[in-house]
Please model this.
Amino acid sequence: MYDVVLLTLGAERDAPGGCGSGGACCGGATGADTGPTSQADTGQADTDQVSSGQTASDQTDSGQCATDRPRVPVLACADALNARGARVETVTARSDAEIDAVLARFDGPARPDGLTWPDQDSKTRLVIATASDGQLRAVLRRLVKRYAPAPSKRPADLPGNRTLPDLPPVAVLPLDPARGGTHRDLAAQLGLPRDPAAVAAAVLDGTPRRLDLLRNDGGSVTLDGALLGAADDAGRPLHWRARVEVDDTILSDGGEPLLACAVGNAGGYAALNDVTLLTAPDPADGQVEVAVAVPVVARAAWGRKRVRLEVRRARGRAVSVLPREGRVPYLDDGVEGELTRKRSWWVEPGAWAVWSI
Model:
């Protein structure tokens, strides 16, 4: 029978950069990464800040990290796993180091080249209890840092279209009900179960469903997608400029104003208000879909000016965005940030997997 780890991330209320920064809660490092040294050469530091996705009832009254008491869905999932004979351990991780301690259980046997590689025959399975896609991403980011070899140590048995091996499959236990509206979390988009008993069944009886992963040169990863751009206090979109390239296709040369840019692995940012940005994002097709929204001024009858929105799209293996001026706000898997220099994303086909029935 399997050993199952139910992993929950701690988070501080109302402080995206407090308990969640510098290797503290949620694994969302700001600046230096305090976890163990990775095999991967990540280049610039990842400056994402992971906002808390938990409700106020999940926090202490002092605003510090959550207590060790698991939430009800976690307890229900543990009960369902125990009833099936699994050996269950619940862990609340409040730092990258604590996440890494859980992930170390998936290390495979020692390799002759000295690399740490996941054990594809492991009898330990991981359930990540998430209140947001940013929390799920925090764990996948640590998996990548653990198992991705540095370019100088790339082994011969690594597929030519990948920079990391197959990551261990994970199960996702959403802690909150599915939200309505246009933006759905990744579990809803993938059709993953939300009921704790159904999640337990997927862990014990399911098969891995392999999905694409986006890595970026900031040292982080993207599971769903990113949306670049911002609006003023009245909700009007602000213009910004950037050079946007997808493989050899130039969507914008940086000389014209943009209203938005969507980088889609899945469909969380497929639409902006009533504008369709991405038409067919697929997290398992080995490609990233990118769209830019460009305001175009045209002359209507009687010489009056009319502004229409032109959406340009492209698909490929990699995308880069180079801001031409100032700071460009963005959301990446729901995590807020600002882009001040070139950022590149590239696809790792089938790099991660979820347990599904």
The chain is about 15% helix and 30% strand.
